[in-house]
Write a structure and sequence with these properties.
Length: about 375
């Protein structure tokens, strides 16, 4: 299984030849009976692919050679042990590439001269990471987090607790609070005390948090992953007050992290990090919404496909579920659309996605409800 990156997606978009097969299917996280259910589903989809290949005039020995790597997955138990909610298989002469998705994918099969990529757009950047800082007065822990797990990371120079951070300062304070004055009567020195008033607990905690922030500075320098803080409610605003890391997440894990197990810390911190990740994804949608009335904004199939073919698209926003079935002639620049899928039609929204990726455009797929003005696709042109 591969973790999908923008570079990989662009390479897949450029990979075109006589036969490229794209299979999308729902899977279940591994449990009793899940492998049998999922392999039966894949077996049926491969049978559909075979029918398409026969209709295209491919001989059976060629079909068997092409589909052999995908068929081998049917008996690959370790492969199904790692199942999530969705699976994409891209099959070509070089073998099969698999991509798992956290979201369910509609069951679809495409046999074309290019891979069908739109369902994979939601997996782009799915290897996002974050930092989790677990704060209490008794301990400080930094974790590296992902969608799958959190791992504790040692950081040099990080205080281990409030007591640890205050120890040296308390020693200095005690030294200053008592010193010997000049000799008094009888040659005895009189004791003089200074600063005997107790320190403000809030000030001590703020100093503690500044020590933590300084300790994190070198470790997180140059990083852009969000930092999620876990702590009791009254500590969280105090840490925000002294924090200098520019990517501190707005949300937090509320509660004493010392009393939360690793699974709970991961589950709650991941939810915060996911919201940060989703917000960064929707920035494109917000920008396109602001440019809605601009002459550079296009929503019709003919304009978008022509612009995609001419590498004129700066950013493209597409609906995950909508389709433009039909044909596009790049030489004439003409587009034919059908109300429903007809023989020989292709998904023209996916064609626009593929060409936009090759040209370096920013591309994002959203649920239909999140699309501006319920459009099926929106493009902002470079010129």
């Amino acid at each position: 299984m591969n973790t999908l990156t923008r570079d990989q997606l662009t390479e897949l978009a450029a990979d075109r030849d006589d036969i490229r097969i794209s299979i999308f299917m729902h899977t279940r996280p591994f449990s009793p009976g899940s492998q049998e259910e999922d392999t039966t589903r894949l077996k049926n989809l491969l049978r559909t692919v075979e029918e398409h290949l026969v209709a295209r005039g491919m001989r059976q020995p060629e079909i068997d050679t092409l589909l052999k790597p995908a068929r081998a997955l049917l008996d690959d138990r370790p492969f199904w042990l790692r199942s999530r909610s969705g699976l994409a298989l891209l099959i070509g002469p070089g073998g099969v590439q698999s991509f798992r998705t956290a979201d369910t994918i509609a069951e679809q099969v495409f046999v074309n001269s290019r891979y069908h990529l739109r369902p994979l757009l939601t997996s782009l950047g799915a290897n996002w990471t974050y930092w989790l800082l677990a704060l209490s007065q008794k301990s400080v822990r930094l974790f590296s987090g992902s969608a799958d797990e959190i791992c504790e990371v040692p950081v040099e120079g990080l205080p281990t607790s409030l007591a640890d951070a205050m120890r040296w300062e308390d020693y200095e304070k005690a030294s200053l609070q008592f010193h010997m004055a000049t000799p008094g009567q009888g040659g005895r020195r009189s004791s003089v005390y200074h600063g005997t008033a107790e320190a403000d607990p809030k000030d001590e905690i703020l100093r503690y948090f500044r020590d933590i922030d300084r300790g994190l500075h070198e470790h997180l320098k140059g990083d852009t992953s969000p930092l999620v803080v876990a702590g009791v409610d009254y500590l969280l605003p105090l840490y925000r007050e002294v924090n200098t890391y520019p990517y501190l997440a707005e949300g937090a894990v509320s509660g004493n992290p010392d009393s939360l197990d690793r699974l709970t810390l991961h589950t709650q911190s991941r939810a915060v990090a996911e919201r940060v990740h989703e917000a960064s994804r929707t920035q494109l949608a917000d920008r396109i919404g602001e440019l809605w009335a601009s002459p550079k904004t296009r929503t019709d199939a003919e304009s978008i496909l022509a612009a995609a073919h001419a590498n004129r698209i700066d950013s493209l926003l597409v609906s995950l579920d909508a389709n433009w079935w039909g044909a596009f002639d790049p030489h004439l620049g003409t587009t034919i659309l059908h109300d429903s899928r007809a023989e020989g039609d292709e998904d023209l929204i996916d064609l626009a996605v593929t060409q936009a990726l090759i040209s370096g455009a920013e591309v994002l797929a959203l649920d239909p409800s999140a699309m501006p003005h319920e459009a099926k696709a929106v493009a902002v042109l470079r010129y």
